[in-house]
Amino acid sequence: MIQELRDDTPGCKQRIHLNNAGASLPPQPVLQAMQQYLELESTIGGYEAVDLLHDELQGFYDAVANMLGTQANNIAYAGSATDAYAKVLSSIPWQKGDVIVTSENDYSSNRIAFLALKKRFGVEIIPSLSVAISDAELADLESLIKNQPPKLLAISHIPTNNGLVQPVEAIGKILRNTETLYLVDACQSAGQMRLDVNTIGCDFLTATMRKFMRGPRGAGFLYASDRVFELGLEMMLPDMRSATWTSIDGYKTVQGAKRYEYWEVPYALVMGSKVATEYAVNLGLEWIEAQVKRLADLSRNLLSEMPGVEVLDLGNQQCGIVTAHADHWDYGSILQKLQAEHINCRVSPGMVQGGEFPAPGRDKALRVSPHYYNTEDEIRRFAEVLRREFPR
């Protein structure tokens, strides 16, 4: 089966791609779907292509909803995870003194957005949850929610580094039946593991297509719960797709999650995203998660066996993102050395997430992120090159 998946992935023929937390190699059906759509646009026209393939394009919403255990009405297309995240934040009616509770594992883009809200509205940011959220912190969070409920609790399900999987379901149980809005950044978990928004209990979930979903760059999605619609939340600046202009001085927000979309949509990317989602669902997210974890665990084991190398991954539950640091690694050339052997990885700077590399000398780390189409031989080849090029 793995060989069939590799044959379906053109990039596997020339690269050992271990940067799936950055952008995965798309499978052939995703490429074909986008190419065919662009060819159709060039042949009959852009508007006409949308009209002709209307039902197939709507299939994007059905596919993502199926993956998340919800309805198509709760799904919006977004240009990226950050695009979706910003649209969510813009829809919340902020007032001075409103509180955002988050963790030390905020993605830098998310934290910048929070700081912009603080600057503009006087919102207070409380990173009360540590890098790896403990049972004790969950108990403290429950007390906080009861005594001083924040406007928003925002958490990254899987941070961009350190292999951690945060207890989003446990947090959702604490927030259930409260007024606090719950936003989950699933940028790194979508496509890597099964996600069920009902089990998580979130009001919003945002993700990208380019990472473990194996979809196109410039595409993502947003889940909004029915409670969001009942509260009447909408983007700060809707347009004629997210709202209907009803009179010279009035408009009506559209029903459902498309209130988070703008009129101009890259439909070739929508088509590619639909196919990528169906591809993952057909394989089975449980199988994908097990395969990714197996390869990530092998990566951790091989790295930890190297003299002077420290694996930085945290938490009891870990995922397909592996981070490691060594004082003797030359981070200025490590990617160049690996790419000379046709191996893709990534160096993560400490600034990406505030709590990841607190110790002196750990300002950078090597990030390795295998996917299900990788093989054990590829992981061992990566370790062999790293050992040879950077002996202690």
What would you say about this model in short?
With 392 residues, the chain is an alpha/beta fold.
Description:
With 392 residues, the chain is of the alpha/beta class. The chain folds into two domains: 2-25 and 284-389, Aspartate Aminotransferase, domain 1; 28-283, Type I PLP-dependent aspartate aminotransferase-like (Major domain) (Aspartate Aminotransferase, domain 2, 3-Layer(aba) Sandwich). The chain is 40% helix and 17% strand. It has helices at 2-7, 28-44, 46-52, 54-68, 81-91, 108-121, 135-147, 168-175, 197-200, 226-230, 267-283, 285-304, 334-340, 376-389; strands at residues 16-17, 75-78, 99-103, 124-129, 152-156, 181-185, 204-208, 220-224, 243-247, 250-253, 309-311, 322-326, 343-344, 346-349, 364-368. The chain has a seven-stranded mixed beta sheet with strand order 2-8-7-6-5-3-4, sandwiched between helices. Strands 11-12-15-14 form a four-stranded antiparallel beta sheet. Strands 1-13 form a two-stranded parallel sheet. Helix 9 links the parallel strand 6 and strand 7 (204-208). Helix 2 (28-44) packs antiparallel against helix 11 (267-283). The longest helix is centred in the C-terminal third of the chain and has 20 residues, at 285-304. The protein starts with a helix and ends with a helix.
